[in-house]
Amino acid sequence: MIEIRYGSQVCGELTSAASREWLVPDGLGGFAMGTVGGLRTRRYHGLLVVPGETPASRRVGLVSLDPAVLLPSGARVRLGAHEWVSGDVDPRGFELLERFDLADGLPRWRWRVGDVVIERELAMLPGRSCVAVVHRLVSGGPVELELAAACTWRDAHGERRGDGPALRMDPVDGGAVIEEAYRLSGPGWSPQGHWWRGVYHREEAARGLHPEEDLWYAGQFRDTLHRPGDTLSVLAWATNLEQEPPPGPQVVAAARHRNRQVVAAARPADAVRATLALAADAFVVRTAAGPDVVAGYPWFGAWSRDTMISYEGLFLRTGRADLGRELLRSYAATLSEGMLANTADTGRVEYNTVDGTLWFLHAVSRHVTVTGDTDLGDELLPALRAVVDAHVAGTRYGIAVDPADGLLTCGAPGAALTWMDARVYGVPVTPRHGKPVEVNALWINGVAGIAELAELAGQDADGLHRLHERAVKAFRDRFPTPAGWLHDVVDAPAPAYPLGGAAHHDDDLLRPNQLLAWSLPFAPMEPDVEALGHLGAGLLTPLGPRSLSPDCPGFLSRHRGGPAERDTAYHQGTVWPWLIGPYADAVRRAGLPIDDLFIGLEAHLSEYGLGSVSETADGTAPHTATGCPFQAWSVAELLRVRR
């Protein structure tokens, strides 16, 4: 894997150390997460974040273990880091960091206090909500080491304040059970029990959200490290509280061994691919309902569109085809009226996308093509044919094949059905009602893929071929613009008319959605070098394509500010790294070189979410990363096309 290592110049400077984040997942949707410098900058940061019934219904438990070294001289040196509403950062343990490493996906810190060097490693027990934090004396000593346990128990999206009830602490051997929800265990436990008030999260403030919370100081662990190699380990775990996990060093060793196996199973050709293979592993989780995909950390759960766009990269490029098969079968069972369920982060099952179902058709087709698993194709074929029939007849939200031209149309008042689905105060920013270009490329691709599966099963596919051919002809007639690229939407309601009005217009804003018209396996258009030249010039950045060209009206250069400001900019110029997948496919199919296309994204692996790829970035230089630091489709698409 690529080397991710920082010395004191990065670790000791607060802005740089606090803007680089690490993630250790538990395989269930929970995680440990923080920054290189140890400063918690988000409400989501913690050492034990516990998944609920769905990956999105997480709760924060153990927040931090703040080390303090007691030297033989009597001096007490604190190695933690907190920011307070007063503006103070205290303690400032990051100033004593001489190195941070991300090794085999696991973070490692190394503090130097004169000749005393303390190292910390952290890992989660795969498949269990359990974290082990191991401290080791590297040189110097003897020293005493204290670990102050700061705790909470709250929804990951909220805060807990000290004006409410104290956290319940029940004593157990070697530690305590907090709120009957999770257990702390380690040597020399001394319970305390009072609030640390006024902790400040700078990233929440930057996102226009409430940035303050209070933490419960539950107590401290303490032990003497006599000689180099001595360790002090603390475990924290939820569920099965009576079942104590293995010792901390064993948890770390097991996690490291597993991560190496994950990388080996992907058969990486180089260090970047190895890094991406391990990054992909974070998003594939086991839930009570079976395998699923977390769309992004730290705040997203499972979303069907994200899952299906990510499918080939996360499953077929990493040696997980069997698990992917199980996932596709599970998702197929959610089909209703020809639409795939979109499991919302709220826990409700909704049917509210026009493209999620079409991406599902693509995922099934790719699975059968790549693996040769025609048994799955045969099994799912009746459901896939029913999807086509439902779209031809018409289904929810005005989604239907237009009998006039065979293209797929969609739209309903207040709905945002495509992947550009941001809303501000309930109003879609980019409603894209009518016939969106990528939706119709996916429709054409999906029908052709089902026809291929039907023929493999020995079934008649003539009706599918006729449907496909008619849509392709209409696509080629309707979508090209005089400017040299493709319309983003045709037959869109004219601005002066409400949805369903008599007048329509064709939207020719330069957006990346048209890339699917050239990049999909059964794309409706042959690669157009001139059109791709326009897209490259107007949209391409080091981290992937923008969602809107700077030359277009409505372009917004920064994805910053409060929720309304960020959502307004979300698809109006913000960079989306996942789009590097269709861009690279289209360019490759046009016979153009792509050797240097991934350089910026490869460098990005050590810039923001360490070892991973962010959700979004600003539309103008320096294209600072925004959104989730760890995003499934961003990783999956880079992994898929970088070959």
UniProtKB/TrEMBL annotation:
Superkingdom in the source lineage: Bacteria
SUPFAM superfamilies in alphabetical order: Six-hairpin glycosidases (SSF48208)
Species in which this protein is naturally found: Verrucosispora sioxanthis
Pfam families in the record: GDE_C, GDE_N
GO MF, one example: amylo-alpha-1,6-glucosidase activity
Glycogen debranching enzyme C-terminal domain boundaries: 279-640
Domain Glycogen debranching enzyme bacterial and archaeal type N-terminal positions: 20-226
Stated name of the protein: Amylo-alpha-1,6-glucosidase
GO biological process, one term: glycogen catabolic process
